[in-house]
């Protein structure tokens, strides 16, 4: 027996290979296989192996034993990021057909080895590999992109610039025919004990620097231009020790989110507050900071408070005025307490109210006299007395 077709027969792996050492072609497609292990090595004379349309999640690196293998089809399975790269790297040079499409490959840098590996393959295999797609994991639209192209950009553009201790993933990746791909990058540096702001890959739009050791000195040393921060639309600085934001963040377009809760912020610049308020759907978190709540402080403005997702955690700290609001939630403080009227202001208001009362009374008297004169003219034909005194 040189050819065995077991498609759609629900076979188990070991039953399919038992005592068939002289096989040249094996088709186990459309079955329920979950693993490929050493038991297949007994068929090391195989030239064609079709394992497509199964449920395979794990393949052991056994194909180096198949010196005559020409065609390998592992498409439409459940191969993912934990795929052992030696499975493909150890393929015999005799292979002229390889299909890995239809698997739930993630567009993550763990598979970036595929690009340099593919460069050593015949063009016919490279063209077939170009049909494989990967899933952009963090994409809100569940975007699919060409696997090898994505891995090329990881290898050349993103991974070499990715900061140490951080992970860099594509957030968006669009590739077209004869058009250079466009992409954006998510950089996650959370909980890495960073003491300085890292330089980022180009096109980074989402950056998570939460739970680090970033201080005010770290922030002051940040150069948003040279370190590629200008494209950021979502910035997470939670759980650090930043005391002041200054104006350098004004260059960013933070329309997705800005989170700086659990820092040491006591105020927020007016211009930066306006920037955050500019966008309708951005997520803002500023709670658990030692805010100085005063009548003129930006954090006390209702327009900014309406945007805060953690307003209930905005507490007025020492330095707030009046002293009675220290330790209280900003949302519970009445505006009349935060911005009480001065005695001079109240006196001016009373004077203005009196003037307005007098003016209103004069208007009423004038209208009443006009109505009376009109009635008197209609009923008696008499003109107002002032008419008779006019020259």
Structure description:
The protein has 391 residues and is an alpha/beta fold. Helix content is 25%, strand content 16%. The protein has eleven helices and 16 strands. It has helices at 13-17, 86-89, 114-118, 123-129, 147-158, 216-221, 270-277, 302-305, 335-338, 343-380, 385-388; strands spanning 3-5, 25-27, 35-36, 48-50, 58-59, 71-73, 97-99, 105-106, 133-135, 144-146, 167-176, 179-188, 204-208, 234-236, 257-259, 283-285. Strands 11-12-13-14-15-16 form a six-stranded mixed sheet, covered by helices on one side. The N and C termini lie far apart (133 Å). The model has no long low-confidence stretch (mean pLDDT 89).
Q: Could you provide a short overview of the structure?
A:
This protein has eleven helices and 16 strands. It is of the alpha/beta class and 391 residues long.
SS-based class: alpha/beta
Determine the mean pLDDT.
89
Overall geometry comes to elongated
Quote the distance from N terminus to C terminus.
133 Å
Binned, the helix content reads 10-25%
Largest sheet: 6 strands, mixed
Radius of gyration: 37 Å
Walk across the major sheet and give the strand order.
Answer: 11-12-13-14-15-16
Strand content: 15-25%
H/E series: EHEEEEEHEEHHEEHEEEHEEHEHHHH
Question: Which ranges are low-confidence, i.e. pLDDT below 50, for 5 or more consecutive residues?
Answer: none
Number of strands: 16
Number of helices: 11
